Amino acid sequence: MTTSSSEHGVSLGMPEPPAPAYPDDVRERLAADAREIVARYPDSRSALLPLLHLVQSEEGHVTRTGMRFCAETLGLTTAEVTAVATFYTMYRRRPSGDYQVGVCTNTLCAVMGGDAIFESLQEHLGVGNGETTDDGKVTLEHIECNAACDFAPVVMVNWEFFDNQTPGSARDLVDDLRAGRAVQPTRGARLCTFKETARILAGFPDERPGAVEEGGSAGPASLVGLRLARGESEPARVVHPRDGGPHDEARAAVHEPSPAEHLSSHDAPHQTSASDPAHPAGPAAEEGE
Amino acid sequence: MSVAAELKDSSPEKLLAPVLSAFWDEDRSWSLDVYRRHEGYEGLRKALAMSPDDLIAYVKESGLRGRGGAGFPTGMKWQFIPQGDGKPHYLVVNADESEPGTCKDIPLLYANPHSLIEGIVIACYAIRSSHAFIYLRGEVVPVLRRLHEAVREAYAAGFLGEDILGSGLNLDLTVHAGAGAYICGEETALLDSLEGRRGQPRLRPPFPAVEGLYACPTVVNNVESIASVPAILKNGKEWFRAMGSEKSPGFTLYSLSGHVTSPGQYEAPLGITLRQLLEMSGGMRAGHRLKFWTPGGSSTPMFTAEHLDVPLDYEGVGAAGSMLGTKALQCFDETTCVVRAVTRWTEFYAHESCGKCTPCREGTYWLVQLLRDIEAGKGARSDLDKLADIADNINGKSFCALGDGAASPIFSSLKYFREEYEQHITGRGCPFDPAKSTAWADRPEVNA
């Protein structure tokens, strides 16, 4: 757990004065939202996590003013609220970019290329982990497993999926974000800003027409097993794991294709590796530009 | 058996069994309309025709076991809820899917959220609950969007709210987004988090069935467990038991990832093997062989190519020295450095350790220091015993299972790949080239 000393400089040992309150109009607007959130729970304190998302949607990060608002709403001390806000990694504690770009560097994504993507983006953007570009657009960070391992390597922008990335596709992605060009996640709806995302996390549905259905029903990797089970794809030719395991001898007769051969006649992997049409993660468009 | 018959038996059509994933490729598969077209909410009608106690017995007899990792019988969890105690009862669905490698609940909720909602209504009828919660990890906004919409649709259609389908059952369902903390996948930490606190595990007993959310009787179930219930009701427990084995019946989602030709979701009866899954899906990526894999996420001891024929059910994987876990089959080929993989997982556990208990908080910290040194070629031979010793001081001695999970990759990698650790020490560095492991390593056109 880190403290927010970076936000306020080095403390000289004097207690901080209480945080200022929100201006009246902001407070009234947030209070109406807060009432709706609190009403979802049998016990008001359960509303704390969504309320922290709500104040983050107001200012882009959780400020002392935001925490004071949560405390007053729920009858807690600011210390109690701070203890919770600093425990969870999704609450940002200093001003950050409109787009939070998270590169998964947990083992599987890291090995599949997440480390290379993260290094490449640090160099390309000139920022380190947790830092924001000068234009205030992009905050870069490495993130933990985001439950999309079958689409590795994964990059998240404002918690939307960008699957099957390469260093090149990720650099294009951040360039587009900084230039204000429209960016479409691989699965899910058009990107919104970090503040708008935080409001959805507070439990207020995305009101943009068509947002729920954008991105289709399921990503290509999610459908691989289903298509095989239906016999819609030719059973892939066996490339066996060459494990020296007990079955190896018995299967010695099985044709083992050379690496140069086209290995799978079904389409899923191809779709997967270029699942973002705007940025074919694949080879062709990759570098030559 | 004739060659043709043999071929048929090992065909994907025979080996796979899409149930929850059966219509994920349809347009708007996540909508109520499409779900109902596939007999959605029919399981609920059958459930409401039974008494709650009979319903619990029925789910127990089906043999359904928890799909979140531990494999505890779902019906038995429901049965533990004291009845007639005058307290409110709660159902909390654990959708905090964060275990490294695990990626089944998120695609399930994205493509078919109503299977979960129907399961929730059935479970709440059984345990006499009138308020349920879905605790979804916050980092998956596309899924949150569809859950919001699915809950709205279910209320509008009378599957949630008051007097559901004229049964007298009232039920409210709250979708709650977390805020980034792996530990909240631990059921008691999840409950603390849902109560608006830091997500730290609780001492048990009392178990959640007696004192859970707001100190009231609470069932905490994984997404896939609850989503499997409607199909059991609709098709019958015999249908369910006809799949899998006596002690591990039914179907489940296997998630294949890593250096394989076709990563993705494969829904199959319990007991399928990794060899079968790889053979039907094109195997490891071209020109490479399997080196190590996890049967159920990073917290389950790793396997090697020796274990390709282990039946992937609770007993089979347990007998082979690991755990079925979340069926997250992360496959790594010979280009991958085991020390690098384990170091990264250990950094994850150290980062996610909640800090409540000393063995986990301090132990994971020191494991990371030792592993980083070894990976960088600065380790000593004695460090390997020290690693094992520290892992032993975490395993079984921590407050919750996060500590056990942190010890698993250490123990299992030392068991199967001790030589590779020694190579890092004697060779003063890592003998592997990480560039060879990337998804684009064998595509020369991709110049990263």
Automatic annotation (TrEMBL), chain A:
Keywords: 2Fe-2S, Iron, Iron-sulfur, Metal-binding, NAD, Translocase. It comes from the Bacteria. It catalyses: a quinone + NADH + 5 H(+)(in) = a quinol + NAD(+) + 4 H(+)(out). InterPro entries: NuoE-like, NuoE_dom, NuoE_N, Thioredoxin-like_sf. Residues 277-289 have a biased composition (Low complexity). The keyword Lyase does not apply. The keyword NAD applies. Residues 232-254 have a biased composition (Basic and acidic residues). Residues 1-23, 232-289 are annotated as: Disordered. PROSITE patterns: COMPLEX1_24K. One of its GO terms (molecular function) is metal ion binding. Its cofactor is [2Fe-2S] cluster. NDH-1 shuttles electrons from NADH, via FMN and iron-sulfur (Fe-S) centers, to quinones in the respiratory chain. The immediate electron acceptor for the enzyme in this species is believed to be menaquinone. Couples the redox reaction to proton translocation (for every two electrons transferred, four hydrogen ions are translocated across the cytoplasmic membrane), and thus conserves the redox energy in a proton gradient. Belongs to the complex I 24 kDa subunit family. This is NADH-quinone oxidoreductase subunit E. It comes from Streptomyces griseofuscus.
From TrEMBL, chain B:
Residues 339-384 form the NADH-ubiquinone oxidoreductase 51kDa subunit iron-sulphur binding domain. InterPro entries: ComplexI_51kDa_subunit (IPR050837), NADH-UbQ_OxRdtase_51kDa_CS (IPR001949), NADH-UbQ_OxRdtase_suF (IPR011537), Nuo51_FMN-bd (IPR011538), Nuo51_FMN-bd_sf (IPR037225), Nuop51_4Fe4S-bd (IPR019575), Nuop51_4Fe4S-bd_sf (IPR037207), Soluble_ligand-bd (IPR019554). It is an enzyme of class 7 (translocase). SUPFAM superfamilies: Nqo1 FMN-binding domain-like, Nqo1 middle domain-like, Nqo1C-terminal domain-like. SMART domains: NADH_4Fe-4S (SM00928). Keywords: 4Fe-4S, Flavoprotein, FMN, Iron, Iron-sulfur, Metal-binding, NAD, Oxidoreductase, Quinone, Translocase. Its EC number is 7.1.1.-. The gene is nuoF. It comes from Streptomyces griseofuscus. NCBIfam families: nuoF_fam (TIGR01959), PRK13596.1 (NF010120). GO terms for molecular function: 4 iron, 4 sulfur cluster binding; FMN binding; metal ion binding; NAD binding; NADH dehydrogenase (ubiquinone) activity; NADH dehydrogenase activity; quinone binding. This is NADH-quinone oxidoreductase subunit F. It comes from the Bacteria.
